[in-house]
Design a protein that fits this description.
182 residues
Length: 182
């Protein structure tokens, strides 16, 4: 089973899910940074919203609702064109340069752990990038979009069912995994 199968079987419109990811970290400082290419970030339990945009744009709607709630003009926000990749119609998937990505609205971060050369690392990592969000019509409570490389997603929990990635197999529903092991 792959992540597309899980999403297609469980989402019609928008829903909240939890994901676990392991991603390589691009550090500032270029080749002079001794940790460049050696750092990965594991995040477990990030809460996100997956949306298909079948009849309306979930991101656009959420920004406008938040603007209205803050007493600002929702008409001041006009969604711009994608900066990269192509979002597939009626799905939360984006393709770019032969890779597949899952686009989500980020709700809250999970637990973060950094690794250097595959080993847990506690301490300051020189060159961690600082991200900034767009203007969004003057919105104070920003709607944050994240686009995860599908291969970096290690687990997904959707509708109270957890699926975990296993090498050579793909995603396995945890209940099914326990039944196989028994």
């Amino acid at each position: 089973m792959n992540i597309r199968d899980i999403i297609d079987a469980n989402i019609n419109g928008a829903t909240f899910i939890t994901i676990d990811t392991v991603t390589p970290v691009k550090l500032t400082g270029g080749k002079s940074n001794p940790l460049q290419g050696r750092v990965s970030k594991m995040v477990t339990g990030s809460n996100v919203m997956v949306f298909q945009n079948k009849t309306t744009n979930g991101y656009d709607n959420m920004v406008k609702r938040r603007l209205e709630k803050e007493g600002k003009d929702p008409g001041s926000f006009v969604i711009g064109p994608r900066q990269w990749g192509e979002r597939e119609d009626n799905t939360p998937f984006v393709t770019h340069n032969g890779k597949e990505y899952l686009e989500v609205i980020f709700m809250s971060a999970g637990d973060v752990q950094y690794f250097v050369d595959g080993q847990p690392y506690v301490g300051e990592i020189q060159g961690l990038p600082v991200s900034t969000e767009g203007h969004q019509g003057g919105l104070d409570n920003k709607v944050i979009i994240r686009t995860y490389t599908v291969e970096n997603i290690q687990a997904i929990t959707i509708n109270h069912a957890r699926y975990e990635r296993f090498p050579l197999v793909g995603f396995v529903h945890v209940t099914e995994l326990h039944a196989i092991a028994a």
